[in-house]
Design a protein that fits this description.
By secondary structure, the protein is mainly alpha-helical. The chain has five helices and three strands. Strands 1-3-2 form a three-stranded mixed sheet. A hairpin with a 4-residue loop joins strand 2 and strand 3. Helix 1 packs across helix 3. The radius of gyration is 15 Å and the shape is globular.
Length: 137
């Protein structure tokens, strides 16, 4: 998919996703398209790593931004599932003003579970099943 096609899906669906799921404690996160999680985190445009092929999107809690890794988006379903999944993580953020305190709490919580047993991931995966509600087709 091209970045224009992905952006068109985002422009259509994201307001509907927000209206359906509601707003969280933080302002609604903007969505940014990025080529790769490692390139984004390292600041090196060509950087790649073991999760480059499988990272679809990420909610960055400290910055309150949803990143969509556009090379991994195959179709509208991928884009919508990614948006819903990461928006669910945004909704899960607790109302703690101090970012360091919130980040420490988040890290402690994440250490208690692996990805497949993490209740926040289970909820986000379940919400992905709603993707067709936001389809343009």
């Amino acid at each position: 998919m091209t970045t224009d096609e992905i952006q068109q899906i985002i422009n259509y669906a994201y307001p509907k996703i927000q209206a359906y799921y509601g707003k969280g404690k933080l302002p609604v996160p903007p969505i940014k398209l990025s080529v790769d999680i490692y390139a984004r985190l390292s600041g090196e445009p060509e950087a790649r790593g073991e999760e480059s092929e499988t990272s679809d999107a990420q909610y960055e809690e400290n910055d309150n931004i949803i990143y969509v890794y556009y090379p991994n988006m195959k179709d509208e379903e991928d884009v919508l599932r990614s948006l819903i999944h990461e928006y669910t993580h945004y909704l899960q953020v607790k109302d703690i003003e101090d970012r360091e305190e919130r980040s420490a709490l988040f890290d402690k919580y994440k250490a208690m579970y692996d990805y497949d047993t993490d209740p926040t991931e289970i909820e986000a995966k379940k919400n992905e099943e709603d993707w067709q509600m936001f389809s343009q087709k």
